[in-house]
Amino acid sequence: MYTEREVLDLIKEEDVKFIRLAFFDFHGKQKNISIMADELEKAFRDGISFDASAICGFENPEKSDLFLHPDPSTIAILPWRPNTGKVVRMFCNIKKPDGSQYRKDCRTMLQNAIKELKDKYNCSLNIGSEIEFYLFRLNERGEPTKIPFDEAGYMDIAPEDKGENIRREICFTMEEMRIDPESSHHEEGPGQNEIDFHYSDPLTAADNTATFKWIVRTKAASSGLYADFSPKPLADKAGSGFHINISCSDPSKTDNILAGLLKHAKEMTYYLNNSEESYDRLGEHKAPKYIAWGPENRTTFIRKPATKEIERLELRSADPECNPYIAFTLIIYAAMDGIENKLVPPQPVTDNLIINGEKSKLDSLPDTLDSAREIAENSQFIKDALKK
Predict the structure, then answer these.
(1) pLDDT tens digits for range 166-197
(2) Which of 17, 81, 118, 247 has the fewest CB atoms within 10 Å, measured from its CB?
(3) Given CA atoms 79, 81, 82, 85 in this order, what sign does their dihedral have?
(4) CA–CA separation, 379 vs 203, rounded Å?
């Protein structure tokens, strides 16, 4: 956890020449401004201005000046850049010219949710991410194709699994950028991979998720491949999920949190599954469609994994293209609703809902992007959560 002073000292000691100030639009796409090392002290003091009207979902041109304020605790040296004249990255919070928080900054939204949970209920959440992605070949012009890098299956090994070396390089790079990988393996689809990393507080988890996707894309490109995080890149194969593991510092609140997540599942779906093809994935290959939970049941919206450690919940519907800052923000507010109102979850489901879902008469998640958007737009829960 570096302070501003320590970062300024580090910049000199490590011969850093460029600082990338990273932030996100409302859809979770990472943006950045590069500044020279000599400008960093000013950035800490005053922020670095940018044109918010050029960022999707931000301000109109007539009132478009916003400022990036780097978070020193997020500094990381980019290991794929030159050792001479190094490049570092810091995530930023966005503020208005008067120094107040910018309410559309998704990183600030998440920080506010974390604080409110702690202040009101004296507890905190930890979040761990499991992210799936495909590796596709490039054509002769260097453009992505839909030709998988290999034809291996779930947890296969080399030589069938051709992604083994790339996953190893990704894990090494993650460690260099202070992210602790936990496991990696080939997934069900041809050319599909998964890398999991250790849980952390929600803000660090969101930062790590964004960094991870950047690392994967960079390492894939350096290997002449394309990393695809879309939810359903191949129509007849398994889609890619973003499984979100949640645990509470007060385990006695776990069932209340579970009930809150189930209550708000429909409302959150637009922000967990924000593309048309997200809805081609749900209901197939263990991607959940029905709003239910079950112990060890991978076909439900939420699974309670078998574990010898602290009890946790695995939310299974989200996909890798969602904005993790907004996803985690909504998870926290749904958890708070469950805690505040002492909600109790329904009985667990043990059936395979991919096969028997229609017979179950369970409520289901929205089945199109338009229906998910309509539910979110009419949700007071969503309006309250995203306007704080």
Answers:
(1) 999 999 999 999 999 999 999 999 999 999 99
(2) 118
(3) negative
(4) 25
Taking only the tens place, the pLDDT of each residue in 206-240 is 999 999 999 999 999 999 999 999 999 999 999 99
Query: Which of 42, 41, 99 has its CA nearest to residue 66?
Result: 99
- Residue 200 has which token pair? 């952390």
DSSP 8-class letter at 313: E
Q: What residues contact 83, with CB distance under 8 A and at least 6 apart?
A: none
pTM score: 0.95
Indicate if the pLDDT at residue 359 is higher than 90.
no
Give the C-alpha separation, 260 to 313, whole Å: 12
Q: Count CB-CB contacts under 10 A for residue 231.
A: 26
Residues 322 and 242 sit within 8 Å (Cβ to Cβ): yes
- Phi, psi for residue 162 in degrees, rounded to 5: -90, -5
Around Cβ 130, how many Cβ atoms within 10 Å?
A: 18
Handedness of CA 334, 205, 374, 290 (dihedral sign): negative
pLDDT in tens, 61-77: 777 899 999 999 999 99
* Burial class, 250, CB count within 10 angstroms (exposed 0-12 / middle 13-18 / buried 19+): middle
| 8-state DSSP, 102 | P
Rounded to whole angstroms, the Cα distance separating 288 from 314 reads 12
Task: Establish how many alpha carbons lie within 13 A of residue 57's alpha carbon, considering only the half-sphere containing its beta carbon.
Answer: 11
Amino acid at site 117: L
